[in-house]
Write a structure and sequence with these properties.
Layout (H helix, E strand, L loop, with lengths): L1 E3 L10 E9 L4 E2 L3 E3 L4 E10 L3 E15 L6 E15 L15 E2 L4 E3 L1 H11 L37 H13 L1
Parallel strand pairs: 7-8
Antiparallel strand pairs: 1-9, 2-5, 3-4, 4-6, 5-6, 6-7
Length: about 180
């Protein structure tokens, strides 16, 4: 998702806004939740030329889909994320403190927004998505939805006590 910034030149203070709908790239999410590949992402950005490069700031709107980590019910909601990233011009020397691999670059008058979108959106997604905070999830023994069956439980005997339980049962039968 490359944007042409040739019109901004290298003159600090020049600026333009960008309001555009773009298809979502692949892998814009985590295991249980994310933005579907090809779905609509709305960009409302401001591109501003500064001394070191192009400063991109604004808001990204996307629809997030996934499933609850407890009950596996489908989830869908709109996500609004603020972005701000400086793309350094080619030839600009970075200070020793800045890691060159973590810095974005303007290459051939183009900036690549995909890594910025990925960083902004994926970090805002929940690690354990849930449909409701009080979602009870599924029974670990049989998989029944606990919301549908209040009070659901299983008698689980610790296998280490099984022999003792058998002795107690046979003792009751002999009495």
């Amino acid at each position: 998702m490359a944007l042409d910034v040739k019109d901004l030149g290298r003159s600090p203070g020049s600026m333009r806004t960008l309001t555009e709908h773009v298809p979502a790239p692949s892998d814009l999410g985590v295991a249980l939740i994310g933005v579907q590949e090809g779905s609509d992402i709305e960009l409302d950005l401001r591109l501003e030329a500064v001394h070191e490069g192009i400063l991109v700031s604004g808001t990204v709107f996307a629809e997030v889909k996934g499933e609850c980590g407890r009950c596996l019910d489908p989830l869908a909601y709109d996500l609004e994320v603020n972005v701000q990233e400086l793309f350094f011009y080619e030839g600009i020397e970075l200070s020793d403190e800045e890691d060159d691999e973590e810095q974005r670059r303007v290459e051939h008058d183009l900036i690549d927004l995909e890594p910025v979108l990925r960083d902004a959106v994926v970090t805002m997604l929940p690690f354990q998505p849930v449909c409701r905070e009080d979602c009870q999830g599924l029974c670990s023994e049989c998989g029944v939805r606990l919301e549908d069956e209040p009070g659901h439980h299983h008698e689980v005997l610790d296998p280490r006590w099984a022999a003792l339980a058998e002795l107690a049962k046979s003792d009751r039968q002999t009495d």
